[in-house]
Amino acid sequence: MATRSTIMDTNSFRAEHADGLDAATRQLTDKRSKVLGESYRLFYRKPVHLVRGEGQYLWDAAGNKYLDVYNNVASIGHCHPAVIEAVNQQMKMLNTHTRYLHERILDYTEELLATTPDAIDRAMYMCTGSEANDLAIRVARAFSGGTGIIVSQEAYHGTSDLTSGVSPALGSGQPLAATTRLVSPPDAYRVNTPDLGEWFANEIQKQIDDMKAHGIKFAGFLADSIFSSDGVLPNPRGFLQKAVDVVHANGGIFIADEVQPGFGRTGDAFWGFARHGVVPDVVTTGKPMGNGIPVSGLLAKSHVLAAFSDDIPYFNTFGGNPVAMAAAQAVLTVIKEEGLQEHSRVVGAKLLAELQKLMDRHESIGDVRGAGLFIGFELVQDRESKTPNKALALDLTEKLRDHHVLTSVAGPYGNVLKLRPPLAFQESDIDWLVGALDKSLTELGR
């Protein structure tokens, strides 16, 4: 029997939905299946045919306007003019690999490293977050001499052979590596403990001990600091420190996957890990750093990176190319000049407060939590038992789509709406989102 994965098959179009489609949409889904194969997935029982984007908004082929509350790759907003101009100008001059000298990669790197703790003083570039995390695992293994990697229970870190082996969110059809161990997520809503940091550190130690019992040497802990695939778990601030201490005490390194929480999204800090006051050994980034242009990075402490780079040359053909660096530079400039980190903090706090008010009207909302413009909206059967309500979450995403709001679900139970709009999201958009949620839950009788 075919298995279904968590993040790929949740909130997805399936063959049984085809009969309900209009002719034009049906033609596109049939053609897509024929030419792209069966691994690809579409969102929604009635897929959305998008043709244009601007800022926090998207338009479909019929001209309907949608509020995008999901796409973090277009981090500063769809089709941002600063990125378009930067890429266009650089494309007119040169685009080639990094084995020739060029100022853009050096200028950008200096500016990027200025946002990190002083100990993080080296950068390397790739094209995707998967590649960055793949290299980070190789660095961890070179530095530690071990192979064992610990990730959270529902983590997603990429699609390469190494990263899919540490991405349980891809589901049971994708086997984990024998050297991977899973740690229970630090879920303050569901874990009953007076000290979440101590509890989480102990969970990591248990997995390190299990590795040792099976003859596996520990290499590192790889985590997205807001645990987005685990259901968006941002708090309490600072709880990661004890876990990082345990990692270091056992000879491993901490890799902060900042593809989603980085670049000002959480509002509290430029980097997600900085909310917890920790200094990672390696930081990885992905396409949000270029607003969707294929660019990613690995930032590291020089002595950690040296264990790999002193012995192994690394070359990623177009990683760090001038066009990608132009896009990344434009994003960094916009974040600073438009004050998007502070914007995320202020607007995100207002959005969170309005979403929490919905709990007074709808008993099905178990918890609303977040940092900046990164919010988890958890749905339950009832608040006393906290029993996850995946069916409601999926029905709610469909209702929101009908109200022209786009998002999706996360978490091990598939019952948490991941509200993660481009940073162009404005205070004036809050009413649309909160109103759509209110109407949709009312229509669903919940």
TrEMBL record:
One of its GO terms (molecular function) is transaminase activity. PROSITE patterns: AA_TRANSFER_CLASS_3. Its cofactor is pyridoxal 5'-phosphate. Signal peptide: none annotated. InterPro entries: Aminotrans_3 (IPR005814), Aminotrans_3_PPA_site (IPR049704), PyrdxlP-dep_Trfase (IPR015424), PyrdxlP-dep_Trfase_major (IPR015421), PyrdxlP-dep_Trfase_small (IPR015422). Belongs to the class-III pyridoxal-phosphate-dependent aminotransferase family. This is 4-aminobutyrate aminotransferase. It comes from Pantoea rwandensis.
